[in-house]
Design brief:
3 domains, Ribosomal Protein L25, Chain P, RNA Polymerase Alpha Subunit, Chain A, domain 2, flat, about 230 residues, about 35% strand, alpha+beta, six-stranded mixed β-barrel, 4 helices, four-stranded mixed sheet
């Protein structure tokens, strides 16, 4: 799928102008190998719509004013920690004839028999994988089929999945992606419950001791004042 966004050139990397605030435009920068960094701004709603689909792993055609569109990826996005509104965006312009590196999200499909039939718990150890490829070969996502996890001994690691054509995985082949943990036995569940009860009792006792100490201190102060 093709993604595109329009941008306007800015004169500096400073704060947003009154017009940009009024138009709800987000400051950004376009940079890349062999190109001069360029401050730009993009419309908030247009950007969020593109970002929701493209994420950090798809090429975006960025048109600055009336210039020819260039291929870029959304490299970094800074948020306001309170409102979660976008504050600044980094676009990394790519060359189609040069390999690039990116983190591609993993999408889990299928169902594990060890989970469905044997009551195991699915454990996902990775949610993305690092790749190297030409921009034209950049995958938007990589699907992981959980149906291969038939027993508790089965696992999926980086080395067990086949990369898309033209794509090289950069993570260690032994890095685990997904496994299935055995369900707890009755003895294990009983011990877990006992430990939880013990922890609650300990907390309650500690709270009672603290309250008693505060009451004793208050009584001592009251007695001293009475004298």
């Amino acid at each position: 799928m093709n993604y595109a966004i329009t941008a306007k050139a800015r004169t500096s990397m400073g704060k947003r102008s009154k017009d940009e605030l009024k138009e709800m435009r987000v400051p950004a920068v376009m940079y890349g190998a062999g190109v001069t960094s360029q401050p730009i701004s993009v419309g908030r709603s247009e950007f969020l719509k593109v970002y929701k689909s493209a994420g950090h792993s798809s090429l975006v055609d960025v048109t600055v004013d009336s210039a020819t569109p260039v291929k870029a990826v959304i490299k970094e996005l800074q948020y306001n920690p309170v409102t979660m509104e976008p504050l600044h965006i980094d676009f990394h312009q790519v060359r189609m004839d040069q390999e690039m590196e990116a983190a591609i999200p993993l999408v889990f499909i299928g169902e594990s028999a060890a989970v469905k039939s044997d009551g195991g718990t699915l454990i996902k150890s990775l949610d993305e994988i690092k790749v190297r490829c030409l921009p034209a070969d950049l995958p938007h996502e990589i699907q992981i089929d959980l149906s291969v996890l038939k027993t508790f001994e089965d696992l999926i690691n980086v080395g067990s999945i086949t990369p898309p054509k033209g794509v090289e995985f950069l993570d260690d082949a032994t890095l685990t992606i997904a496994t299935v943990a055995r369900p707890l036995t009755e003895d294990e569940l009983k011990k877990l419950e006992e430990n939880q009860v013990g922890d609650v009792t300990a907390i309650k006792t500690e709270a009672d001791e603290k309250k008693a100490a505060e009451e004793a201190k208050a009584a001592e102060e009251a007695a001293a004042e009475a004298k």
